[in-house]
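The records we work with from here on pair a chain with its fold. These numbers are not coordinates but entries in a learned vocabulary of local backbone shapes. To see the layout at work, look at the sequence and tokens printed below:
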Amino acid sequence: MNTKYNGYENYQTWCVAMWLDNEQPSLAFWHEQAKRCIAAAATSSNVAEGYCTEHQAAKYLLADRLRESFYDANPLTQPGVWSDLLTTALCEVSWNDLADAILYDVATLPAIASADVQPQPGGAARSLPLAIDLAATRFSLGFLGATPGALAAVSTAEMTAALARHVRGDWGAVDAHDWQANDQALVNQTRLLSAYETAAGTRFWIVTEADRSATTVLLPDEY
């Protein structure tokens, strides 16, 4: 029986991945840690002696760092039912699975940000460090980016509000057919596209890739 949850080993692993992905400072930190693990793996004695590949060595190093970080940050230090429940949930997290996903992001996200969403020449998506309200979120946003046209036409507040609606499954100003298609895309793990308007009447889109690796804010003529 397939027990995976949204592509991850289980719900606990997906939950950690969602929070890592949707908090831009956290995402940037773990991307940097992944790069350091890749560099360390290249000189690993285990790789030199043939016990594992460079990717496997990097994955194990990063998984250990993720595990230690979350256990060290556990806010419930006193013994009790709540601390036991939290520790049990953490024990179910597949740290190797998370490390694999982060290493994949580091290797592929620059290509995803500029290739899957096709802006006009010179309009590649740029990183978008926003604090998004994650209440009632229904999927991971992944890497947040915006095209130059969107950055020029849409205010930070309007972009943040639209992203908060998008991640809750409020698809904005799309028709009934596209609304239903987005709802189905949540089930089928396919691309999501929502539409919104600024206070000045400028229409803009938000696109989340099928694998939930990246979300881009763009103008319709930049698609």
